[in-house]
Write a structure and sequence with these properties.
This protein is of the alpha/beta class and about 350 residues long. Helix content is about 40%, strand content about 15%. The chain has eleven helices and twelve strands. It has helices at about 1-25, 50-55, 70-75, 105-115, 145-165, 195-210, 230-240, 255, 260-275, 285-295, 325-335, and strands at about 40-45, 60, 65, 80-85, 120-125, 175, 185, 190, 215-220, 245-250, 275-285, 305-310. It has an eight-stranded parallel sheet. It has a two-stranded antiparallel ribbon with strand order 2-3. α10 (about 285-295) packs parallel to α11 (about 325-335). The longest helix is centred in the N-terminal third of the chain and has 23 residues, at about 1-25. It is globular. The relative contact order is 0.14.
């Protein structure tokens, strides 16, 4: 009897979660939709660390003048910003007890991005902490959810996040439904061993975006910029299962993905093989080469790159004192060479 009561309570709690989720889908009063920014060529940067760095007192300079880091990027040709978002980064196993990369911080950054007239890419990790090829942990609040509840929760979280951004007039122009998901997401349920489940979860995320604004571009982000076979395996299986998306996003880190020749061969093949746009959505090294490869792809598809965390990671475009360095000048040259509009 005790076991039946516990099971009954668990089912009731699960239903309450779903009922609450469905209710919250309609909890926001949205402002009128605003026109999305579209660039044929994107020179982008992921600067999700910026609020945390600013909270720690970091300042940024260009030619000795203190400026907003976003303004410095724009001054050197950047026209797009990417932000990551976690479900609950303040959870016990989460990314930040202070809540960095949560919804509220994302809303504040979105206002700054839109005020600068830049495009906005939102990257859903669907986790309380980093999601990448080596880990795709479920958010703590979803750990006991069943198959249907995971789909409902994924769609609801996506939709509610976008509704909150829409309410303040800062909807993203592009959305990643998952981060580096070439090995799956929400493990173990949607690992590559369960391709049907992975496709169903991606469809739920895509539907959460379309529930708010059908014109937002959808990206599938895979983490194998120099590995054509792995890229094609993932894409072919998702297309076979009717996952709808607009952009193929590739990460490229040479220590894992090989030399730039491998990147070039992969992007060239993907660009010819699929109708979707192909962009490098994460990289740090070989700045000139990566952009030369991307912007030299044939055809009239949208082209673009996003350097990962240029304010403080890898071959950063700022030194430890916050001064824009020689790498920032490289981006000014890339912007001019490929006529990046702002």
């Amino acid at each position: 009897m005790k076991k039946k009561i516990i099971q009954s309570l668990k089912i009731s709690a699960g239903l309450l979660v779903v009922v609450f989720t469905v209710h919250t889908l309609f909890a926001f009063k949205s402002s009128p939709p605003k026109k999305h920014i579209h660039f044929d060529k994107i020179l982008g940067a992921d600067i999700s660390f910026l609020p945390q760095l600013e909270a720690e007192g970091h300042k940024f300079y260009d030619n000795g003048t203190q400026k907003d880091a976003i303004q410095i990027l724009e001054d050197h040709g950047f026209n797009y910003v990417r932000l990551r978002i976690f479900n609950n980064p303040a959870a016990d196993s989460g990314y930040s007890k202070k809540g960095f990369c949560d919804l509220e911080n994302t809303k504040k950054m979105a206002l700054r991005i839109k005020a600068a007239g830049m495009g906005f890419l939102l990257d859903f990790h669907y986790s309380d902490n980093w999601a990448d090829p080596g880990k795709q942990h479920k958010p703590a609040a979803w750990r006991s959810a069943n198959y249907q509840q995971l789909q409902d929760s994924l769609r609801a979280f996506t939709k509610n996040t976008l509704l909150a951004l829409k309410q303040q007039g800062t909807l993203p122009d592009m959305v990643q439904v998952g981060n580096e998901i070439s090995h799956g997401m929400l493990w173990p349920d949607a690992s590559l061993k369960h391709l049907d489940t992975l496709a169903a979860f991606l469809k739920a995320g895509v539907q959460g975006v379309k529930d708010v604004d059908k014109s937002i571009k959808i990206m599938l982000h895979i983490a194998c910029g120099g590995e054509n076979g792995e890229s094609r395996y993932f894409l072919d299986n998702m297309l076979k299962r009717d996952v709808k998306f607009d952009i193929i996003g590739e990460s490229y880190y040479p220590e894992w993905h090989g030399p730039t020749d491998s990147l070039s061969r992969n992007l060239t093949d993907l660009n010819q093989r699929y109708k979707q746009d192909v962009i490098v959505v994460e990289y740090s090294q070989h700045k000139q080469a990566v952009n030369d490869i991307e912007f030299s792809l044939p055809g009239n598809k949208m082209k673009g790159t996003f350097i990962w965390e240029p304010i403080n990671y890898g071959e950063a475009a700022f030194d430890h004192s916050g001064n824009a360095n020689e790498y920032m000048k490289t981006y000014s040259e890339i912007s001019k060479k490929y006529n990046i509009t702002q």
